[in-house]
Amino acid sequence: MKGIVFVKFGEFIEELWGDEFWDELLEEADLPSGGIYTAVATYDDEELFTLIGLVVEKKNISSKDAQFAFGQWVFKELYSLAPGGAHDFKDVFEFLHAVQNFIHVEVKKLNPDALLPEFEFLSETANELTFNYQSPRKLCFFCEGIIRGLAEHTGQEVVVSQPECEHEGDQRCVIKVEKV
Amino acid sequence: MSQDNASEAVTAETQPTLEDLTKRLGVLERKIAREKKARNMAENQLEQYSLEIYETNLSLKRALESATQKQAELEYLGLSSSYVASELPLNVMVDKIVDLTGGFSSASHGFYIISDKGKAVGGKLKQMWSLAEGWQEGNPFEEDVLSVLPLGEATLLDTWTVQSIKERNITTDQPIQTIFYTNFTLGGERIGWMAFFCTEEAISEELLSVLETAREHLLNGTRRRLADMRILKRNVQLQDSLNNLEKARKQLIQSEKMASLGQLAAGVAHEINNPVGFIRSNMEVLKEYLTDIKSFHAELSQNVKENDTLTLSAFEEACKKSDLDYIEDDSTDILKSNIEGLDRVKDIVDNLKGFSHSGDEALVPMSLPDCVTGALKIVANSFKYEHTIDNQLSESCPRIIGNTGQLQQVFVNLFVNAAYAMEGGGELSISHTEENDRVILHVKDTGSGMDEKTVKQLFTPFFTTKPVGVGTGLGLSVSYAILEAHDAQVVVDSEVGVGTTFNINFPMSTATEDS
């Protein structure tokens, strides 16, 4: 996983619970990288899952909530780093469509080895969009959080839900976004 | 609570303890250490990226250079191929290839020489190609080039030869260091040579491999052109042979006609002999009659001399004595018969003349019944009393496109064969039917017929069922050739013991062709 995610995760934890808690997490996790993260390097996915697991344990929250909260928080951070063209979108659905055709293309330019999720759009009406979230990392809750963060950015009210989820024993993850 | 106590309590709440501070310091130190390491990592990564970018740029530059070079090579090969494949004459093609190859290999000068039996005889001996000016008149290096090229060995090179000629001190703007050349056959002992001067000391492998490809194209091109020339020559020869064959065919038709005429000669002689015979005996009779008339005349003269007059009774008596009435009547008959006999002879001779006449081969509207009747007259003697001839053709038969003389030859053949097949007698019937724009002539005999094997060989030259000396074996094969030239198809129906029918399908003459 790209280092930017770890860097932002650290910032997120520090903002929420202070740098001492982040330090505590790293000390306890005793990760191969030693918690030394830079945006340009790539780290083992497991390190993020270990850190999230520790947060869940120490703060007594669910993994789903932790991923969702991080997703919601990180959107604006990533968005500010995105290239100029990514700032033209004013609608959640429009942006989601652009993710594969535009955002991921830009990401690939800088990180040819990046492993990115794929969206398979299933249905769309004016107020409702469903798509199949495909990623071996199974970070569907993180994705839900990012969509929420996106909606906050566009100033739209949305409800994000998962009619189907691999974590619930389904064959795939289907994310539904409803404008309200 | 005292003031001091109160302030102490406040201090205890807001002021961090040493333990807190130590802990905080630990967190911060670790954080700084992590950040420092992260920065080092990032910087290293950056350096790595810079290096990668530099190397990528370098390889891109090389790739671009190689692509540009490849493009030039492709252009060169493409153009040389198009010259080779073009219809340009050989010399013009080689001129252009020299120009192209010189330019591509950055040679300073180029030459094209043709040698024959080891001696330079042509090409562009007195001309020279240069990078700056292309082909131009005058070749100051003729001697240099001729002394380097192994003209005398007269062997075909299987690649380009590169040779250093530094020691010759040939100088133009820059000293010439190298010559590279190759050769190709121009047929026989003629060899074409292409040579180039080069100011470089060596020629790269890559350039040589491209030049080699172009050389192979050139070889193909020259081979094709030489083959084209050979084919052209062969074509002329074939055309000559064809003309000779055509001449021979015409001669064969005429010879065969004469040969069949020879076989008919006995019958024809008989045909002529017959009337000649009775004409002669008639003449004998007429000679006697003349004697009778002479004596009748003498008697009358005597009578007049004696009596000075001629009485009716005396005249009648003399007439009676000479049988003059009979002589008069018979003479009229005899003369009539003679004229008829002579007409018969004339008719036969006319038909023979028409038949043997070689004539032209023009196909024109003609009458099928007239042609058949003429042929029947020629072969009349081949048919005997036990034969009947049923010629059902009438003037209602449409005119066809054909050549009367040639078709008469065909029919004579058919009729003679029919007569031969009906040795013990039979009927020859000739009729026609019409189908679309075609007239089909049916020649049917009730002769011995033929088995399948014989029918198959019917039109094969020199095939005959007749005894030696009776037939040439060429009649039907020549007839077949004639019919083919008439666009006429022949279908033969034959059954052993029943007879044979030849069905010949002729193109009908249209009204416009008739007029």
From TrEMBL, chain A:
Highest taxon in the source lineage: Bacteria
Cited InterPro entries: H-NOX_domain_sf (IPR038158), Heme_NO-bd (IPR011644), NO_sig/Golgi_transp_ligand-bd (IPR024096), V4R (IPR004096)
Pfam family membership, one: HNOB
Residue span(s) of domain 4-vinyl reductase 4VR: 118-179
The protein, known as: Heme NO-binding domain-containing protein
Organism, scientific name: Marinomonas sargassi
From TrEMBL, chain B:
Domain of life: Bacteria
Keyword Phosphoprotein attributed: yes
InterPro entries, A to Z: HATPase_C_sf, HATPase_dom, His_kinase_dom, HisK_dim/P_dom, HisK_dim/P_sf, Sig_transdc_His_kin-like_C
Pfam family, one: HATPase_c
Sections of the chain in a coiled coil: 18-52
SMART domains according to UniProt: HATPase_c, HisKA
Keywords noted in UniProt: ATP-binding, Coiled coil, Nucleotide-binding, Phosphoprotein
Histidine kinase domain residues: 267-510
GO MF annotation terms: ATP binding
Catalyzed reactions per annotation: ATP + protein L-histidine = ADP + protein N-phospho-L-histidine
SUPFAM superfamilies tied to this protein: ATPase domain of HSP90 chaperone/DNA topoisomerase II/histidine kinase, Homodimeric domain of signal transducing histidine kinase
EC numbers for this chain: 2.7.13.3
UniProt name for this protein: histidine kinase
Organism name: Marinomonas sargassi
Lineage, uppermost ranks: Bacteria, Pseudomonadati, Pseudomonadota, Gammaproteobacteria, Oceanospirillales
